[in-house]
Amino acid sequence: MTNAEQKKKVIIFDTTLRDGEQTPGVNLNLSEKLEIARQLEKLGVDVIEAGFPAASPGDFEAVQAVAQHVKCSVAALCRCVPADIERAWEAVKGAVNPRLHIFIATSDIHMQYKLRMSREQVLAAAVKAVKLGKSLCDNIEFSCEDASRSEPAFMYQVLEAAIDAGATTVNIPDTVGYAVPEEFGRLIKGVKENVPNIDKAIISVHCHDDLGLAVANSLSAIQNGALQIECTVNGLGERAGNCSMEEVIMAINTRGGNFQVTHGIDTTRIYRTSQRVAKLTGVPVSIYKSIVGANAFAHESGIHQHGILANPMTYEIMTPQSVGKTESTLVLGKLSGRHAFSDRLQAMGYTLTKEDIDSAFAEFKELADRKKTITESDLEAIVGHVKRDTPDYYKMESFQIQSGNKMQAMASITLACDGQIVTEAATGDGPVDAAYNAVNRIVGGQWRLDSYDIMAVTGGMDALGEVTVRISREETQAEATKTEADGQGASEAEQIAEAERPQGVKAQMISHTGRGLSTDIIEASILAYVNAINRAKAETAKQSA
Ligand code: KIV
Ligand code: ZN
Known about the structure:
Blueprint: H1 3-6, E1 8-9, E2 11-14, H2 30-43, E3 47-51, H3 57-69, E4 73-79, H4 82-92, E5 98-105, H5 108-115, H6 119-136, E6 140-145, H7 152-165, E7 169-174, H8 181-194, E8 202-207, H9 214-223, E9 228-231, H10 245-254, E10 261-262, H11 270-281, H12 302-310, E11 330-332, H13 338-347, H14 354-370, E12 374-375, H15 376-384, E13 394-404, E14 407-417, E15 420-428, H16 431-443, E16 447-456, E17 465-474, H17 477-486, H18 492-499, E18 509-518, H19 521-544
Parallel strand pairs: 1-10, 2-3, 2-9, 3-4, 4-5, 5-6, 6-7, 7-8, 8-9
Antiparallel strand pairs: 11-12, 13-14, 14-15, 16-17, 17-18
The structure holds 3-methyl-2-oxobutanoic acid (KIV) and zinc ion (ZN).
């Protein structure tokens, strides 16, 4: 038997669309979630956790759509609450291989202060929930939330009961990122040795990165028998994020002798997936990020450059090509036609609808008038800016800006809205602030600019500037009162439901991302802001429909 045949396959469970979407400020719409799901499928993940259907109608709809569009297994998260489980099943049942992911906390601190339940109650709730899940779906994952701070003996008992009730995967989350690698590895070994029926289930781990140890803990778990890793693209997730998919995969590839497992990920798609997720979520990748950061393969010092030229392995433990990071090449010019344009996008791995190609082609033609050379990165940026799903309630018609170091900036903006053309002027601290103040005068409402990022898509004086903004609107008094009233007078199931209010429910602030692309950075800034407002309006319209 060869070495490769002895290796077991580790299941890659991607939770970018669920835990990753819980990243503060991230709010993906349906078509963005579907696009990420398609990218994940091409990347080769085994399971996509598409959302938490009970959290909101939007989550339900997204899980349902992902379930219908991809062939890999799709999981829906649910608490040990019958209504949650039934709703999750309703959303995910159309998948080729649906999975219900049922969780409840097993640490004393969570049971006492959050759930207000005894150990016996938690054990009973877990068994009841898994049995209900099993009556609907064969593929059941059960998670002991806050496992790394749970008393091991109690956790083993819950896991054994969950497997007896039908769980086929048992997940050990380091929910608060508290574990350290050796100890976490011992916990997994403990599960293997102390849960009598563990051979009937796959052991999974789900590590958070609060101490920067999520990848190390996941790798240690693999060394001790875990065969499913829960992770996210770019390490997105609650607080400090989750185990980063690209890091754990490249560690397995680069230091394979330590882990003895295989996986189904096509690593040459890692870079592109990371870039798309960063664009769609509006969370940029740090230049220092391992594997996918801009500096990950950059060599600045002369000594390093000399070594790299003599033999790349002097300073590179893996190649940029192995993660799909290749030089962006000149691809199309001003005279290229629609056919060449759509062929090129297809070769780059995009499957767009006719309407999306039309709108991307129009943007391409406009750009080709302003910019001499159009590269793959430009095309990627253009595709990323096709405004799928979002109607143009407001559309920028024109703008004029005056600014200088000895004057207050002034902006005059003209927007088309509802067939009307409206112009407003305002001053501000700089041209972007003035422009946003003028837009606010047209659209009204209490918008707060939470973040503003600008990035050059390619080098050169005529580079495209890409602006990403995140804006939020404070919850109105009426909305706040409703949220409080929802938590009153609870039964036991409702008690779990309320205590474990989905982490994905975004209370207080509702945040929206907008993107703008232009060779003129002020124009890109205005387009991004108007796009965020359009997205906010679209969401409000959907909620009140
Ligand atoms: O971090 C966590 O414990 C989770 C569970 C729901 C698996 O996200
Ligand atoms: Zn988590």
